[in-house]
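At this stage, I wrote out one protein's amino acid sequence and its backbone structure tokens, and that material follows here:
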Amino acid sequence: MKRTSSAIWNGTGKEGKGSMSSQSNFLNNLPYTWASRFENANGTNPEELIAAAHAGCYSMKLSFLSEKAGFKTDSIETSCTVNLENGVITNSHLIVKASIPGCSADQFQELANDAKANCPISKSLSCEITIEATLI
């Protein structure tokens, strides 16, 4: 399986602007700028998209692992914060709340840590990955 996305950038690093698109067209010329990346201006940025990808990938991996362990997951809510310092992603922090009937707190922590270590996005990141996992 291969997935493709593209970016176009026009102008200098600080004054320029760009757009990102994805193969599915879900992202279709989504604008980004220096200000949206480094000053919290409106628009997206690559790190925000990495955080979304990590949260989504992690949630699916946890669901698969839960099912493999014999549980039926009701819901998994994951948020992710990616920290960019001096041009390097230094940390990806996951906050997870999951409803998995019949799963004990210890079993859940084991599943949550397994998903953190083994979801494809986690495996692709070369930064510290931290997690706060709560069974609800």
